[in-house]
Amino acid sequence: MSVSHSGWTVKFLAVVRYELLWNVRKKKFLGMLVVAFALATLSLALNHIAYALGGPPVELNPDFVINSNVGLGGFVFVLFAIVTTMNIISAEFESGTIVPLLAKPVSRTTVFLGKLFAAFLTLLATYCFLMIYMTVGGFLVFGPQNNLHLVPLSLVGALFSTLIWIAIVLFLGTVFRSSLIAAFGTLGVWIGTTIIGSIIGVLAGQGWIFTYIPGSGNQGFANGGPSPFGPTGTGVSTGTDSIGSNLINYILHPSWEVTYYKINIGGTTPDQIQWVRLYSEPFSNIILTSIAVALIYFIVFVAISWYVFRRAQVTE
Amino acid sequence: MEFVIEATDLTKKYGSLVAVDKLDLKVEAGTIHGFLGPNGAGKTTTLKILVGLLKPDGGSVSILGQELGWDNPDARSRIGYMPELPKLPKHLKGRELLDIYGRMYGMSKEAREKQVPKLLDMVGLKERGNDLTGEYSKGMQQRLGMAQALLNEPELVILDEPSLGLDPVGMVEIREIMKEIAKEGVTVFLSSHLLHEVEQVCTNVTIINKGVALASGTLEQISAKIRGPLILEAEVDKLSKTVIGKVKELPFVANVSKDGKKLFVEVKTRDDVRSRVSQAITAGGGIVTSMNLKGGSLEDVFMGLLAKNQKEEAAK
Ligand SMILES: Nc1ncnc2c1ncn2[C@@H]1O[C@H](COP(=O)(O)OP(=O)(O)OP(=O)(O)O)[C@@H](O)[C@H]1O
Ligand SMILES: [Mg+2]
Predict the structure, then answer these.
(1) Does some domain include residue B300?
(2) Least C-beta-crowded within 10 Å: which of A120, A148, B58, B290?
(3) Which of A:92-131 have CB within 8 Å of B?
(4) What HEC string does chain A produce?
């Protein structure tokens, strides 16, 4: 029997269907939609809530949608990556369903790719839903919006930002065959790079390292300069989490330069804290670097997972 | 003779434990071949190697005339496999699961629409096809496991303890199915530790213990190896020369002797010939009051072999 191309497609789509039907019925996936919906609603309603609690009145903001990054940010990327991916390989081993699955005449590479593709589709559907909801919601709450044609860039950026985490979840899940290690391991990586990373970066002036690590990356400032109270201008994160907003900002302000600082704590009183200018780079550098970082991490971790899965012995 | 499974020197270790030890296995086309052994003998391990779930540490396997390399979907497309206590994805309905597995076999829509209801009916799940497999009882999961092994009209069906967890009716049904598909020319290779099951359905048997094949051949050969001929012991009223003459005329009778009212018939076959013998007795004017099959069952053979194996090990 020869393996024709259409034969391959049929089998690949069978795996995708297997996975999607499973995803759609998982309470976790429904939970993910609810969380996405809740987060988006919260960011839309935040100003109204603040007003109700005695804050300033809600003003129209034509840049709300474009600056909202479709309601997504660092932790949400990690969360969605974990929810879409923590089960695709490891849970099959944990539940033993891998046994009848891998006994079917579908190559392991096809199973692997089909599952990954299904995770991607799930993510894409969730993000599209979020994007539409945020755009319509933003319009209703904050009035007519600027630059709506750039909103799909946030979606593309968000996908890049999440893929890197998906690859890490997949890697941990495949190597350890444990959904828990996949989920908590990835959370650990995120906490390590994001929270601890940004503190070290600012204090030690070694922030550039974080440009090459998934997450929020280094912090710099564009369109401003030093002042007695620290740098002014727009804060820019160089990390893979910010690909979407950086892409949009780059199109709106192609000539921006981003400057990095470090903090010297010279004495004990606040006025002795010094912001020392380190270096500057063009905005385009940052975008290219973070996309390259996202792709390289994705390719490396997916390739290792694929290699491990292809060779995996089913002892379950 | 054509062999659908040919394994030579097959070896599989889990760490330092040798689960399968230089096993030679030959399964002839068109037979129902039992793989008989106590718990932990290495049956499941061997079957998993045959379907490509485990990689052997030594030896070679060819399936349906094809060398079994690692991850060989081509070979799997002609095999059906029912795992031991099959674990099926809980979030799929019985019908959906069969349909998706059918797609993985590359079956056309028409083929799936024909096979899926037919198989659900065959394993007695016609009424439950639209329920999630997670809601199935253990026996129902076992039945669905059987159905999915027959989806692609395989040339070889590998069943790991097919009657495990089934009620008596289910056991009979599964045996009927095995006989049915064997009639259509499908080779059935099943593992079991139920001697009477093997005795009832199998034409051939391989006995395995501690990863070593102790004996292999047709049921008659194996039995003959260990014990004398099979004796049918009948108590007969009006036991005359004519009766003995009639019985001697039967083609499968090797020898006949009598002791008072008792008639001893030595038979050359493993088929159940009690009714034919009793017909011959009646035809000769005798009246059968009781009838027993003597001479060890497979159980005697099995226990005998195990005891011998243990003695040999102790002597080492
Ligand atoms: N995943 C595993 N890790 C380590 N050892 C294993 C593993 N699976 C099986 N074994 C060992 O390999 C040997 C053979 O096991 P196997 O499951 O093949 O036996 P079996 O004949 O199918 O037994 P049973 O009748 O109980 O199903 C046993 O000693 C078992 O403990
Ligand atoms: Mg077993």
Answers:
(1) no
(2) B290
(3) 95-97, 99-100, 102-108
(4) CCCCHHHHHHHHHHHHHHHHHHHHHCHHHHHHHHHHHHHHHHHHHHHHHHHHCCCCCCCCCCCHHHHCHHHCCHHHHHHHHHHHHCCCCHHHHHHCCHHHHHCCCCCHHHHHHHHHHHHHHHHHHHHHHHHHHHHHHHHHHHCCCCCHHHHHHHHHHHHHHHHHHHHHHHHHHHHHCCHHHHHHHHHHHHHHHHHHHHHHHHHHCCHHHHHHCCCCCCEEEECCCCCCCCCCCEEEECCHHHHHHHHHHHHHCCCCEEEEEEEEECCCCHHHEEEEEEEEEEHHHHHHHHHHHHHHHHHHHHHHHHHHHHHCCCCC
* B135 and B268 part of one domain: no
Token pair in block for residue A301: 């971790």
Specify whether B130 is located in the same domain as B217: yes
Ligand 1 in reach of B276 Cβ (< 6 A): no
Ligand 1 site, residue B12, Cβ cutoff 6 A? no
> What pTM did the predictor assign?
0.84
**Domains identified in chain B, total number:** 2
CATH of the domain at B237: 3.30.70.100
CB atoms within 10 A of CB A133: 17
B251 lies in some domain: yes
Reduced to 3 states (helix: H, G, I; strand: E, B; else coil), residue B294 is strand
Contacts of residue A4, Cβ cutoff 8 Å, sequence gap at least 6: none
Q: Does B138 touch chain A (CB under 8 A)?
A: no
ipTM score here?
0.85
Tokens at B287, concatenated: 């009246």
Instruction: Summarize pLDDT for B147-202 with one digit per residue, the tens.
Output: 999 999 999 999 999 988 888 888 899 999 999 999 999 999 999 988 878 888 99
B12 and chain A in contact, CB less than 8 A: no
Q: Are the beta carbons of B103 and A14 separated by less than 8 Å?
A: yes
B183 belongs to a structural domain: yes
**What is chain A's pLDDT, residue by residue, as a tens digit (316 residues)?**
444 556 899 999 999 999 998 888 877 778 878 888 888 888 888 878 888 888 788 778 888 887 777 777 778 888 889 988 988 999 999 999 999 999 999 999 999 999 999 999 999 988 888 888 888 888 888 888 888 888 888 888 889 889 999 999 999 999 999 999 999 999 998 888 777 766 766 666 666 777 787 877 778 888 777 676 677 788 888 888 888 888 888 888 888 888 888 777 665 565 666 777 888 888 888 889 989 999 999 999 999 999 999 999 999 8
